Each structure stands twice: as C-alpha cells, then as structure tokens.
Inverse folding.
C-alpha cells in the first residue's frame, strides 16, 4: 500500500509539473489588464486584438503554408528512405546513406541553420539563385531536417510488418509496383499520416533554422512571437498560446491515433 | 527489370536531396572555416586562387583563434556543464516517472504515456515563454513564496542560469521519458518479484536489477537531451541573464554581430566534431556489433 501511494504521488507531481505552466499561460490569456501579471478581470479582449493583428495573422498563414509544403515533401522523401533502408539491399555507400538520413536528428538546430544560410549564399554567388532568401529557402531547410523524423517512423513500421504478405502477393502474380501500391502503402498509410503530422508540427514550431534562412516577406509565426516576447511579456501572445496549444495538442492526439493503430 | 528502375528512383531521390541540401552545406561550413577572413562581402577569401596557376589559400588561424581564447572555450564549457546538469535533472525526474508508468496496468499506461508526451507537441517557444510568466517578480511562484512567508520580498528568479536550467528541464523532459519508458516497458516485471523473493531489499533490487537493465534507455534519453541542449539558443536568450555565456549565443553573435563568418564556421564545425561525430561513430559501431551478436 505504501508503495502505491508513492507511485501515485510521483505520477501526480510529474503531470503537475508538465501541465502547470500550460495552465498558467491559458489562465493569464483571459486577463483584461494590459500589464500581463496584474489580474484585473476576466475578458476576451486579447483574443479580439489577436484576430485583428495583421502581423500575427499574416505570419500565421506563411507558417502554415511552409509547414504544409515541407511536411508533404519531407514525407515523400522520408517514406522513400524508410522503404529503402528496410527493403532494398543494394544501396551504394549504405553507411553514408544512413549518416545523411539520421544526422539531422542529432545536429543542433543552430549549426544546421548556419550551414543552410551559408549554402544559400554560396549558391547565389555561383549560379545566381536564390537571389534573396524567403519562404523558398525556409521550405528547403525544413524539408531537409524533417525527412529524418519521417524516415524513422516508416522504418520502424516496415520492420514490424511481415514481409511474407508482400511475397505472397507477388506469388499471386502482382508485379513490383502493384505490390507497393496495393499492399505496402496501404499497410503503412497510418504511419505515413503520423509522419506528416510530426513533420508539420516540427516545421510550424521551428524558430532557429527559420531565423537563419528567412528573408524579406517571410516572417514565420515563431519569428514574430519571439520578437514580441524576447524582452518582455505580451498579452496578445498569451491569447495566441492558448489557441495554438489547443490546436497542436489535437494534432498530437491524431498522431498517436495513427501511429498506434496497427501496432497490436 | 522494371523494379530495378523503381528501386533506383526510391533510393536516389532522397539521396540527391540530402547530398545537395545537407552534405554540401556541411562541407561549405568546413570550407569557410579554413578560409582567410577579410573585410568585404562575403567576408572571407576564396580557398582556391587562380593567378599563374592554382594556389590553395587556406588557414587554420580560425581554429587557433577560437581555441586559444577563453571567451569561446569558456562558453563551450558553460554549455557542456549546463547540458550535464539539465540531463541529470531530467534523469532524476524522468526515471521514476517512466518506471511507474511502465509498471501501471496497460490501460492506464497508454493514457499516462499520451499525457506525458502531449505537452511536447505544443509549441516549444510558448512553453519557454510560460516560465517567463511564472518566474516574474510578481509572478505566481513569488506570490506563493510571499504568502507562505518564506521570503519577505520578491526574489529575482528570472534572467539567471537557474531559470535556464528550469526551462530546459521542463521542455526536454519528454525526450528523456520516452526512451526510458521504451526500455523499461520491455523488461519482465517478474524479475523485480524474483529479486525480492531471493531476499534483496528495495535498494539492492533497484541497483542490481532495475538500473542495469535500463542502461540503454538511460544512454538514449541522455543523448537526446544532452546534445541539443549544448547548442540551445532560445532558452538562455529568453530566461537567462548576463551571468553566463553559452555556445549558442556566442555562435550567433560571431556570425550576426561580429560578421566573422570564418570564425562562426570554425565554431560550428568544432561543435559537429565534438558533439555529433562521436554519436555517429558509436551508432555505426553499435549497429555492426549488434548485427554480429545476433548471428
């Protein structure tokens, strides 16, 4: 009995630690006062101001656009990597392939961001493209580091499922492409969706790499939020937090749903 | 015949992308890190000069420069210490949590796991910002401390290294819990009962049975926390003060403020060699070792 008391206490304290800051943020978003820390009364004022703040709305649209495009590209390429690593034996310089597809997972964002920026500048010096940085360069950088996350999810899923199903289909006269589209892809589809959701969230949330590779007309939401809260507090950001936290948590739940679906 | 073409397409499309947009950028960092700096745009000289034949124009000056100045080495050490302390705290909080989640019954286990990871899905920047609100001079924590009579006036909790550690432990905790849970979940709970039956007390059971079996999880979780924290830029920028300088900040300023591109590249490339290379080598050796031992 004593040990189960300790157990529930530890779990309760752990969850409290994880959720307390989020609840504080949501609580203060309803504060009427412009001075964030002084409670004046319940109000939806800052939600109103948020929806009329053009800078935030515009950056939000840019962020969603970049996240959707880079998640889609990263998912296509990540699925190819995951499939290659599990199902294709002959990969030239296999260790190098693994190095390329897994290092972005551990490389500090700052180093990745710097390398992308210097790459774009050098590329521009050599071939005159991209002449200025912006949404395109952020998109390329995000694809590059999201690929790795999709690849490990797909790799894990393909390692799990029985290769015999594919072989049986081939014995029954399906050709290679047909097996891929009719058998393999439908089986790993939930993992593909999960990978896309993960890549989407990572891109939406990224500040460091985007700060390096941004340019005129490409202020993403994290860049705008960071400039607002770097030195102080902002009641509008509080309201934004509450909405964003809610939306992202829902995406997270979907991710769990898809990633777990065929596990058992 | 057809499938050969197909396989090639699958292997080489991402291969092409990653070589072009990941490997070449890393090579460019190295190239600039051995270039001679000068005033101008870009602020470094080419490493190949063509006058009366090819001349190679490189230098290790930039590396000498950063490794002989305590400003750079000191900040890197600060970051390593920060990462070490944060990793230890994540482990101390994460291990009991992961252990108790893994030993719950299966329905509760899945719910708890989702609950632990969900905050990780919400915005990183905003979770750090939340601590800025909590630790304000008139923030919640100070209000509680004042009301309990622990202090008589508000404490300066924000803008120092302790706030930075707090923010890091909070945001990186799920990265520690997940791999720990992954390994703890696999092992047979009967082992704990068996060790108790054999007369080992709680402490001995923990140190002789549970801990050794969870070493791979501890290593994986610690690496996932330690490496990104060394390069962390946002959290010290939001919650930290001027009492400590860190690697991320120095790298940022060397590039954007001092406009010393070769110096910043040398810093970045040193970071890759010190932090990332050992992991990559370890991973390759480990996968070879485990392949050999399975057969």
């Amino acid at each position: 009995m004593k040990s189960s008391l300790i157990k529930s206490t530890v779990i309760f304290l752990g969850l409290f630690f994880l959720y307390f800051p989020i609840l504080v943020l949501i609580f203060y978003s309803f504060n009427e006062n412009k001075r964030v820390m002084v409670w004046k009364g319940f109000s939806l004022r800052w939600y109103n101001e948020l929806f009329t703040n053009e800078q935030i709305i515009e950056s939000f649209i840019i962020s969603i656009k970049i996240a959707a495009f880079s998640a889609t590209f990263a998912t296509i390429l990540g699925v190819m990597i995951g499939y290659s690593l599990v199902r294709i034996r002959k990969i030239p310089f296999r260790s190098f392939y693994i190095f390329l597809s897994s290092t972005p997972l551990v490389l500090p964002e700052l180093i990745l961001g710097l390398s992308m920026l210097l790459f774009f500048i050098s590329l521009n010096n050599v071939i005159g493209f991209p002449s200025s940085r912006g949404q395109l360069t952020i998109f390329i950088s995000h694809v590059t580091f999201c690929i790795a996350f999709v690849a490990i999810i797909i790799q894990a899923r393909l390692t799990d499922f029985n290769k015999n199903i594919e072989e049986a289909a081939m014995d029954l006269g399906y050709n290679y492409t047909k097996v891929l589209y009719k058998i393999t892809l439908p089986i790993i589809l939930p993992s593909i969706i999960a990978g896309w959701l993960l890549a989407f969230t990572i891109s939406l949330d990224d500040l460091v790499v985007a700060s390096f590779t941004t340019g005129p007309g490409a202020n993403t939401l994290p860049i705008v939020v960071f400039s607002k809260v770097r030195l102080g507090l902002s009641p509008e950001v509080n309201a934004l937090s509450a909405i964003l936290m809610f939306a992202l948590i829902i995406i997270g739940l979907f991710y769990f749903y898809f990633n777990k679906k065929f596990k058992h | 015949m057809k499938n050969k073409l197909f396989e090639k397409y699958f292997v080489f499309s991402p291969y092409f992308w990653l070589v072009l947009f990941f490997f070449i950028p890393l090579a460019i960092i190295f190239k600039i890190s051995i270039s001679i700096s000068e005033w101008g745009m870009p602020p470094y000289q080419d490493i190949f000069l063509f006058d009366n034949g090819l001349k190679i124009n490189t230098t290790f000056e930039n590396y000498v420069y950063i490794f002989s100045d305590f400003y750079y080495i000191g900040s890197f050490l600060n970051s390593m210490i920060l990462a070490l302390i944060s990793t230890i705290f994540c482990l101390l909080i994460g291990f009991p949590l992961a252990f108790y989640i893994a030993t719950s019954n299966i329905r509760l286990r899945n719910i708890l796991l989702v609950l632990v990871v969900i905050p990780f899905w919400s915005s990183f920047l905003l979770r750090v910002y939340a601590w800025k609100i909590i630790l304000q001079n008139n923030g919640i924590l100070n209000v509680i401390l004042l009301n309990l009579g622990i202090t008589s006036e508000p404490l300066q909790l924000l803008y120092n290294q302790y706030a930075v550690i707090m923010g890091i432990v909070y945001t990186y905790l799920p990265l520690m819990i997940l791999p720990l849970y992954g390994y703890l979940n696999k092992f047979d709970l009967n082992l704990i009962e068996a060790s108790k039956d054999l007369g080992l007390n709680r402490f001995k059971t923990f140190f002789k049975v549970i801990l050794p079996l969870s070493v791979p999880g501890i290593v994986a979780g610690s690496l996932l926390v330690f490496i990104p924290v060394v390069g962390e830029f946002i959290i010290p920028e939001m919650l930290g003060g001027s009492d400590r300088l860190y690697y991320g900040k120095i790298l940022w300023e060397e590039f954007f403020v001092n406009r010393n591109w070769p110096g910043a590249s040398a810093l970045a490339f040193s970071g890759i060699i010190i932090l990332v290379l050992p992991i990559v080598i370890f991973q390759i050796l480990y996968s070879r070792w485990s392949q050999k031992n399975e057969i």
Notes: The domain at 54-260 of chain A is CATH 1.10.3720.10 (MetI-like fold). The CA atoms of residues 101 and 107 of chain A lie 12 Å apart. Chain A has a mean pLDDT of 87.
